[in-house]
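= Protein in question =
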Amino acid sequence: MTTTVQNYLDKGLRGLWYPVLASWEVQSAPVGITRLGEQIVVWRNKDGQV
């Protein structure tokens, strides 16, 4: 992890909400991404909720 990313995480950025993808990019199939050095997966459930 880069020093800059680690500095932000150390300041408490990890506990905040922030956008990671546009809504049209999130479908029923899981999408894996890396943000702030963290690997996460997003998808929509059968009701269309993320």
